[in-house]
Amino acid sequence: MKIRLRQAAEAALVAVLALPAAWADVPPARVGTLEYVEGSASIDGRAVAGNQSQLPVLDNGQLLGTASGHAEMLLTPGVFLRLDKGTKARLENASLTDTRLRLEQGAAMLEVDNLHKDNLIRVDVGPGTVQVLKNGLYRFEAVPAQVLVLNGQVEASGNDQIWKAGKHHEISFSPGPTVAKYQSLPDDDLSKWSRLRSEYEAEASVASAQYFVDSGWGWGYPYWYWNPWFDTWTWFPANGWLMNPYGFGYFSPMAVYSYFPMRYYGPHAYGFAPRVALGAHGFWHGPAASPAFRGGGFATRPAFGHMGSFGRGMRR
User: Is 83 within the bounds of a domain?
Assistant: First the structure.
């Protein structure tokens, strides 16, 4: 039985790694990958250029800055850092097991959807260091130095002291370290932009999971996957499904097969993928995806997601 399970896992992994050409042409994402830029951004003072699939990856010690727009950077799979206008954040360490940033100026949102026990994610702000303990949504401010926990839990240290804060609490580091409930959530441009980006990425996640099913793979593992049709990096769980802090759904290929039988193939064109049996290796076998449906006249977009009650079918 163990040998059969190992063979199934190996076969599924080989299938996942055999990505289509549109995905394989994009270098793999890692901690520090610049995912999206709106307006102007720079790395160590040099302007960022290129389309979304060609945005650079920050190395240890590099500084990401924004001027009149926003920027989004990928950390570990399922963790997004979103910078406000006029913000500077330095990537101090770009390891999967020890990810560390410093917010030097402005404000940033951190969406944590998939925190593993071996992930260590820390943000330095002012005189303090904040470690993320749970999946959730966090807002960091450089002046005054503080972290707001919208959902989740953090542990902060500074001045030889340690504090913890949970949902709807904030830790302020100046003028002195305090933990308290925050009065109101900032409803500014950063908050709205972060929520909208989260919605787009959840849509792309469902589309990518559907692509795995329709291509005959039907299995994946939590990793950054490039979706060329949404022009974005995304990820999905290895199994089951979850809701992110904004309430948008992320589904594994096997779960999306059950929850979203409808496929989006192009403008004004919808269809239902046939139900298929569980294959010999334990993952779903569906119709092979192709660049276009012969004779169907549909657009060349296989397996786009339709979020149903979790979204409004928005696309960039």
Answer: yes
Q: What are residue 70's phi and psi, to 5 degrees?
A: -120, 165
- Give whole-number Cα distances, 286 to 153, 213, 219, 283, in Å: 40, 6, 12, 10
Instruction: Write out pLDDT tens, residues 196-218.
Output: 999 999 988 888 888 888 777 66
Asked if residue 212 and residue 73 are part of one domain, the reply reads no
Indicate which CATH number applies to the domain containing 170.
2.60.120.1440
Cα→Cα distances 156→35, 102, 145, 254, 287, Å? 27, 14, 12, 38, 50
In angstroms, the CA 133 to CA 75 distance is 15
| Phi/psi at 141 (5° precision) | -125, 135
Q: Which residue has the tokens 């849509």?
A: 203
Question: Which one of 168, 185, 202 terminates a domain?
Answer: 185
Pairing of strands 121-125, 99-105: parallel
Whether residue 312 has pLDDT greater than 80 = no
Q: How is residue 264 written in tokens? A: 């989006």
pTM as predicted: 0.78
**How far apart are the C-alpha atoms of 15 and 219, rounded to whole Å?**
8
With a CB cutoff of 8 Å and minimum separation 6, the contacts of 113 are 78, 79, 80, 135, 235, 242, 244, 245, 250
Whether the Cβ atoms of residue 81 and residue 75 lie closer than 8 Å to each other:
yes
Q: One-letter amino acid identity for 80?
A: F
132 & 164 share domain: yes
- Domain extent at residue 161: 34-185
Structure tokens at 50: 């290129």
| Rounded Cα gap, residues 306 and 205, in angstroms | 11
